[in-house]
C-alpha cells in the first residue's frame, strides 16, 4: 500500500506558503473589474474625453511572453461617462489573458461601446516594441 503525500508550498518571506495566502484585495478588484458609468453632466454639449492608460499588459497567445502597451481612449460621451477607477481595473484585468494585440484593442472597444454608448470613440493600443517590432492598433466606433 503506497501513501501519497502532498508537498506543501514553500513558505514566503513572511512564513506563509503561497497556497495559504489569501487573494489580495487588488487582485480581487481586478478580477471583478467591469466598466461602470455615471450620467453625463453635460448632455447636449459635444466634448471629448481623452484617457491614457500607460500600464496595459497582456500575454502573447503564441509565446506566452508579456506584451506592454499604452491604451489611449478618446470619446465623445452621449448619456453616460465611464468611471475612471472602474476603467483602470477593467484594463488591468487583461494582465493574465492570452490575447493578441489586435483582439485586445477590439475587445476593449466592444466593451466600452456596450457600457458607455458614446457618440464616438477611438481606442488606440501602442504596444512596446518586442523583437524589433512595434505595433499600433487603432479602432473607431461612431453612433
Topology:
Blueprint: H1 25-31, E1 37-39, E2 49-59, E3 66-76, E4 80-82, H2 84-92, H3 101-116, E5 120-130, E6 133-142
Antiparallel strand pairs: 1-4, 2-3, 3-5, 5-6
What does this structure look like?
The strands form 2 sheets. Strands 2-3-5-6 form a 4-stranded antiparallel beta sheet, with helices on one face. It has a two-stranded antiparallel ribbon with strand order 1-4. It contains 3 helices and 6 strands, in the order H-E-E-E-E-H-H-E-E. It has a single domain, classed as GTP Cyclohydrolase I, domain 2 (2-Layer Sandwich). A hairpin with a 2-residue loop joins strand 5 (120-130) and strand 6. The longest helix has 16 residues, at 101-116. The chain has 143 residues and is α+β, with helices and mostly antiparallel strands.
- CATH fold-level label: GTP Cyclohydrolase I, domain 2
What is the count of distinct domains? 1
CATH level-4 homologous superfamily: GTP cyclohydrolase I, C-terminal domain/NADPH-dependent 7-cyano-7-deazaguanine reductase, N-terminal domain
Order of helices and strands: HEEEEHHEE
How much of the sequence lies in strands comes to: 25-35%
Number of helices: 3
Could you write a compact summary of the structure shown?
Helices cover 22% and strands 34% of the residues. It contains 3 helices and 6 strands; from the N terminus they run H-E-E-E-E-H-H-E-E.
Looking at this protein, list some descriptive labels.
143 residues, alpha+beta, GTP Cyclohydrolase I, domain 2, 4-stranded antiparallel sheet, two-stranded antiparallel sheet, 3 helices, 6 strands, 34% strand, flat, disordered N terminus
Amino acid at each position: 500500500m503506497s501513501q501519497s503525500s502532498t508537498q506543501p508550498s514553500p513558505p514566503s518571506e513572511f512564513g506563509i506558503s503561497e497556497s495559504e495566502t489569501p487573494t489580495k484585495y487588488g487582485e480581487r478588484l481586478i478580477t471583478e473589474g467591469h466598466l461602470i458609468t455615471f450620467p453625463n453632466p453635460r448632455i447636449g454639449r459635444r466634448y471629448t474625453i481623452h484617457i491614457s492608460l500607460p500600464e496595459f499588459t497582456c500575454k502573447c497567445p503564441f509565446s506566452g511572453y508579456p506584451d506592454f502597451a499604452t491604451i489611449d481612449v478618446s470619446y465623445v460621451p452621449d448619456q453616460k461617462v465611464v468611471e475612471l477607477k472602474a476603467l483602470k481595473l477593467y484594463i488591468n484585468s487583461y494582465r493574465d489573458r492570452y490575447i493578441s494585440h489586435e483582439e485586445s484593442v477590439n475587445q476593449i472597444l466592444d466593451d466600452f461601446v456596450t457600457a458607455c454608448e458614446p457618440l464616438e470613440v477611438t481606442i488606440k493600443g501602442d504596444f512596446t516594441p518586442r523583437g524589433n517590432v512595434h505595433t499600433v492598433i487603432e479602432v473607431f466606433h461612431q453612433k
